[in-house]
Queue: 2 jobs
Job 1
Amino acid sequence: MDKYLSIEAVGMSFGDSPILTGIDLAIRKGEFVTLIGHSGCGKSTLLNLVAGLLKPSAGTILLAGKHVDGPGPDRGVVFQNHSLLPWLTCLGNVHLAVERVFKDDVKKRTQAALELVGLAHASHKYPHQISGGMKQRVGIARALAIEPKVLLLDEPFGALDALTRATLQDELMRIVAKTGATVLMVTHDVDEAVLLSDRVVMMTNGPAARIGEVLEVPLERPRERLKLAHEARFMELRAEVLEFLYDKQAARGKNAAALKVA
Amino acid sequence: MRAVALRKVVTPTSPPHPAARREIPVQVRPRRAQAPEWVVSLIAWGAGIALFVLAWASIATFGGRIPDPVVVGKAAAKIFADPFYSKGPNDQGIGWNVLSSLKRVGIGFGLAALVGIPLGFVVGRFKFVSGMAAPIIALLKPVSPLAWLPIGLLIFKAANPAAIYVIFICSLWPMIVNTAVGVRQIPQDYLNVARVLNLSEWKVFTKILFPAVLPYMITGVRLSIGVAWLVIVAAEMLTGGVGIGFWVWDEWNNLKVEHIMIAIFTIGVVGLALEQALMLAARRFNYG
């Protein structure tokens, strides 16, 4: 297996409290991998390590053979709460990212990114004038427009209602298929993980969380939500993730409520 | 302050009491057409002013020394017919007096912005500097700006720069404090965006720090200019020269009380205009 994004023996601790220990994960080019686990297991921390927003206490992270040392435009990040700058239009938000990376065709690339997420018509609107789902699409456009080697998504649909979430999941599958993007995504939605991923990485409970199991999702693409809902193979995979989360890693106390099983 | 007072007068436009509304379908009386909201506002506005003038007129009639609205109105017509005459430094039109007061406020306030806004950024950005500034600001902020006037006179040995200096001092604190608060309130998300995109320092400042702090800065500016306009009148009474504050004192010495009344309204109108202009600016930069 060729390693495009390679997380090697990574550990992370804040002060004396260990968050992650001995994380080994290799992701192929064009692969879609989700990290799933109970709240507080450190899956977002792992994503932030790959993003370069945090520095690992131990181990290394390599992207396309290059050592990850701090944030950079070779990784596109989509944050949970969209993080669009409210004083810039959708166009302005994407433009800010594009002009950082490309010298030529900045306007064209910006437009193309907004078209990709189906928001060309709203490009001159400000974030407060559009819906939550649309904001998250602009966030995805901003991350993709810089043509990153890997797309990092931190619970991107966590704050959306179920219907919007489903639409955006379909949209994301379409975009990923079209661009061949490599994706690492954090989620706590079991269906989302199985529907979108090539592999689901299940993490044990913290502190000092590890990778518990890795589940291959050999479902054919393109995947269709409605067909999958009746497919036995999908149900089995889903059950496996549920088993891991609720049986092997039963959440303690109030953490259980944070897990969504739609 | 005047803007707020006027707003309050307009509030009778609030919806009718729910109980009152529920009664209507029971009594089969035809529903009367409601007057548009702006008409109600206008009536309330006019009623408030009428009441004020009436109270003033009755005080003038029974109280003696205060000129009644008609006398003041006539005097105002005369004064505003030629607001820009100039017969030497001690006898100038009200327009010149207002303008020279505004000029002092503008200069003192502009200097305060030049010093206070960058200082506010530094105080907001670095905890240690914030710790250093806290006791100084806490101690000096409640001091009446006029207490600084003798120091100003001592340093500058002239009335005009001393008055500007007082405006500078009183505008400085709100500017520093509000800018610093704005800098501290910048959401971590925005800074993460900057880090993820690896934006240059210049881009971070122009695209993230500055726009994020701007609404707070405008609040600082609004508070500053309000205080400055209050203070300039008092400072000019003490320093003399040309200016609306000096004019008030001069007319008191001439015992032209109707002119003092005119000055009071003029000061109010100019203060209201300054406040409204900045409210407009604040609304422009208030991101939903």
Note: Residues 162-179 of chain A form the longest helix (18 residues).
Job 2
Amino acid sequence: MTAANLTADHVTVLAQVADKQSGEPFFFWLLAIVSTFAALGMIFMRKAVHSALLLAVVMLCLAALYAIEGAPFLAFVQVIVYTGAVLMLFLFVLMLVGVSSTDSLVETIRGQRLWAAVAGIGFLVLLAVGLGNAAIGNSAGLKQANAEGNVMGLARLLFSKYVFAFEATSALLITAALGAMVLAHRERTTPKPTQKDLSTRRFLAGAAGVHPGPLPGPGTYARHNAVDMPALLPDGTPSELSVNPVIAARTDTASRHADLYGDTETEALEQDVAAVKAATEEAEDASAGPREVKEAGK
Amino acid sequence: MSPGHYLALSAILFTIGAVGVLVRRNAIVVFMCVELMLNATNLAFVSFSRMHGNLDGQIIAFFVMVVAAAEVVVGLAIIMTIFRTRRSSSVDDANLLKY
């Protein structure tokens, strides 16, 4: 064994020992497995929100991998820009489109999934063969490049060698911001209705029989204050207007007044009506007293 | 660790993203898969940067992030505009950009 060979062997052994001591293999395999499964889940989840959350997992894993690989600046940018901004933008749009939107499982192109899987596996094999044939030696490590600190090193390159690309980036960002504004802007085809227009419209509708004022709240005069209880009008009739139309369409008014005391529906409704009448009379008595005093005071 | 491991992970993530683009029909999810592919290439760039011992790869990854951010802004705005007129975010329904 020559001396050169010996030193080369030493170097590899030393590199392996340093590797094991830094705990890099453990973190790499952990993050690799988590990110691969999260990415697979992202494809297979039917709900778009779940996909977005799994994408967040993948991005956080990648940020940790960047940190391991001696790119702390990129790791932070990954968390701030991707997980913080881009993914939140995705979630915003998902909320606007509707969270409950799910993909239908019907294939519009026959055999689309099968052929996509075949193409994916073929592509992976292609990449694997390419990587296998490439001469990937041991990594040189970033100790020297990061000697001043990662951010300093990046800044030195960014503002000298890549300064033109950096300037072009600013133009790109401005264009993107403008584009988003243009695309999000909606031209009004009709003038915006003023408060006066809205009021006129409401009273014109009132002339046609629609109540122009606000609708009564549910359960206002009843013994209950649940949203599905219709308000009882002072004469004791339940007001269908006070309940959400969806609820009103679903059940009968009388059945909603049935309560836990074991009364029949009509009995419960009669009890409620009687209670309302009593309360109305009480209120009238109470308001009659002070009013007389006031008038006497005048 | 050898850069090969990182490159293999990057290749796997890229392939998963590509299959997602082919398979999914919700435009937003397709877009997320494109983001996954961009992230995978970033991982490869960072690994190459470490392999060669200089920071150029990290600079490229940084530029990829900037371009991806701009792309997301415009792309999501387009998806929203299509959704507003079509009431759907499926890529099957968007075959005419004008109406």
Note: Chain B touches chain A through 70 residues (CB under 8 Å).
